[in-house]
Specification:
Strand content: 15-25%
Strand order of the largest sheet: 6-5-7-8-9-17
Distance between the termini: 26 Å
Radius of gyration: 26 Å
Structural class: alpha/beta
């Protein structure tokens, strides 16, 4: 599908192909396409295209993802496509870096790339690293975009608390990782857990898969149950799940397991299905590419380095449990989770519980730390968050799906809880709008 613009004083149409976002010159009489092709990003004012400044030469960028994930690749490739880069992805297949490669900059993920250190020493160029592990020391001047650990741990711990857990754990290699901006990851986890008033422990990553099969069951045997565990990645979460089977622990009844990165092919191949934090790898890759572009323009590296915010928790069966010992409170919480989207009120929850509102509020505050109305709002705004991120539905449509009487009530509730409007939240968390 195309649209055309008549240029003044010339016998030419500019026709834009909307699928490929390019401008094609077309003779007004013969309607034959010429070979002149302009990128739409350079055609903001078609009438003055003949006087526009020369285009910047394409940039040559090396993609060196030692720890590969196709979603990071997709984000970087999308930026490259949007900005006319030539992206060298050969390492994706060869797993080697050409020692004589010469270009403008590098995007990497992984901390053990000796070949990359040698390359950048031979040909100095800007390097941006995607990930929480700091770049190898030899990569002088490398800038890294880390995962925002404060946001990650606050998000996950608050979600565990909302299900009634008072014992939580961090498992896997993150327990032994130090980052440039946060230092010890385990220290950050324990600090945020303490701030939220819950007990925490760290389960170090065993040195091998064989060791994991014996070490994790022994570690879990010393954990107070029910316990909620955040794994360092989805593969680590699978190790924990297998260890629970070995130790005779029920998932999620005894141990709730939350993975990290929401990796396709992993979360959907376990039993029960694995809950995971969607860290939005594609957006992370796009952000890294945009940062490299600014460095290539001559800008100084930002101080402090930028952080990447995790997107959302995707709840599946491995965490679908209410760890509250009081039966009345647990049943009321389950009623809210199952019916909140149907427009129920606090009065409906009280009627279902067959106790007074005052008594039910006391139970909620004892086991969760907040009231029945706060829990009802929390469940609804969480639903709103997920719909804003994962769909293109309007705020009015989302209000109906989340159990609000109207869009205005949704807007007030959302802004009261998060400090921003739903539209602002959607824009900030949209990978397409990055």
């Amino acid at each position: 599908m195309c649209e055309k613009i008549v240029l003044p004083d010339v016998t030419t149409y500019l026709i834009r192909d909307k699928e490929y976002q390019i401008w094609l010159s077309c003779d007004i009489d013969k309607y034959s396409f010429n070979s002149i092709i302009y990128e739409s990003s350079l055609m903001k004012n078609p009438a003055h295209s003949s006087n526009s400044a020369p285009r910047r030469p394409p940039r040559d960028v090396l993609l060196a993802l030692e720890q590969y994930d196709h979603r990071i690749h997709q984000g970087i490739a999308r930026y490259a496509r949007d900005h006319g880069w030539r992206l060298d992805s050969s390492m994706t297949h060869s797993h080697q870096i050409d020692p004589d490669w010469s270009g403008d900059g590098v995007l990497c993920r992984g901390s053990e790339l000796d070949e990359l250190v040698a390359l950048t020493q031979k040909h100095p160029m800007p390097v941006v690293s995607v990930g929480s592990a700091p770049p190898k020391p030899g990569l002088k001047g490398a800038v890294d975009i880390e995962l925002d650990l404060n946001a990650l741990f606050s998000m996950t711990i608050e979600d565990f608390i909302a299900s009634g857990y008072t014992h939580i754990a961090l498992a896997g290699n993150l327990t032994q990782t130090r980052t440039r901006q946060f230092g010890s990851v385990s220290d950050v986890f324990e600090r945020i857990a303490t701030q939220h008033g819950v007990d925490s422990t760290c389960l170090p990553h065993p040195p091998s898969p064989a060791a994991a099969r014996t070490t994790y069951p022994a570690m879990l045997a010393h954990c107070a149950t029910p316990v909620a565990i955040l794994a360092s990645d989805d593969l680590c979460a699978v190790d924990i799940l297998n260890a629970c089977n070995t130790a005779g622990l029920r998932v999620p009844d005894d141990v709730a397991i939350l993975g990290l990165h929401n990796s396709p092919g992993i979360w959907d191949s376990t039993h029960p299905s694995l809950s995971s934090v969607d860290t939005n790898f594609e957006s992370w890759g796009y952000e890294a590419a945009a940062l490299l572009d600014t460095l290539l323009d001559g800008a100084a590296a930002p101080t402090p380095y930028p952080l990447h915010t995790p997107k959302q928790i995707v709840t599946r069966r491995s965490t679908n449990f209410i760890a509250v010992q009081n039966e009345i409170a647990a049943n009321a919480m389950l009623f809210i989770r199952e019916r909140a989207n149907n427009g129920i009120t606090v009065a409906d929850v009280v009627a279902h519980s067959i106790v007074s509102r005052q008594h039910l509020d006391l139970l909620f505050k004892k086991h969760l730390g907040w009231s029945v109305s706060s829990e009802l709002e929390r469940v609804r705004v969480t639903r709103v968050q997920n719909l804003l991120i994962s769909t293109n539905a309007s705020v009015a449509e989302i209000a109906e799906q989340a159990g609000y009487a109207n869009a205005l009530n949704l807007h007030r509730s959302f802004k009261r809880r998060f400090g921003i409007a739903p539209g602002q939240f959607r824009k900030a968390n949209s990978s397409e709008g990055t």
